[in-house]
Amino acid sequence: MNLSDQTVLITGAAGRIGSAAANLCLEYGASLVLVDISKERLESFVNQMPADLQNKVSTIVCDLTSEQQLNQLFLKINESPFLITSAVHSAYPTSSGWGTSFEDLTPKNLASDLCSQLGGAILFSQKMMNYFQENSAGNLIHISSIQGISAPKFEHYHGTNMSSPIEYSAIKAGVIAITRWLSKYYSNQNIRVNCVSPGGILDNQPESFLQAYRESCTNIGMLSSKQVAECICFLLSSSSAAINGQNIIVDDGWSL
After folding, report:
1. What pLDDT, on the 0 to 100 scale, is given for residue 94?
2. Which of 13, 18, 30, 160 has the greatest number of beta carbons closer than 10 A?
């Protein structure tokens, strides 16, 4: 896959999906603008990249939940010498109350997470689409989840301290809706908007969970972040030129 003609902005770039997408984009020849809330994690991540490719990487530290910092991010982008051709929004801010049980969920926690995550995706899209409009082209990819299209399989969590919050399902379903809305709103402007919904990604989960999860899949079970990144890179490439407004499910059949 050839992305050598692309400059890709990735939010949440030091996270699991964001970092995997960044590494693969770089491997396929893209230049990168990496955005993350953590300066330390961002610097550490870039330092792990091949030394001869680091000159293709720019970094910006930004808290996307801050209106001021979001505005400053796009001021920097507009003042920069590079032209961003595509963006991957993989940032996923969470509040201090994230993961609270359904029974203990409060209006404050719910409002905070819905605003920062779903609202944040909308407001980032607003800025990014305006940038793409001004430059007469663009490609935006959102990250949703299988929990945005299907109810959790709560039986997989038996015997663990894991669960899947109701607000997570609501947010991820909303991200899919945002994707479809944007693709229609900006139709016939040489701008595409798509979404990737990954299945579970390996992250030191308990063996009992991994086994239960695998039984709901067809070949692989839990995914690596690189497998998700491959789909992202496909959507970034010219090979996906006819794909717009779609939610691509990457889950080894979990949702069947």
Report:
1. 86
2. 13
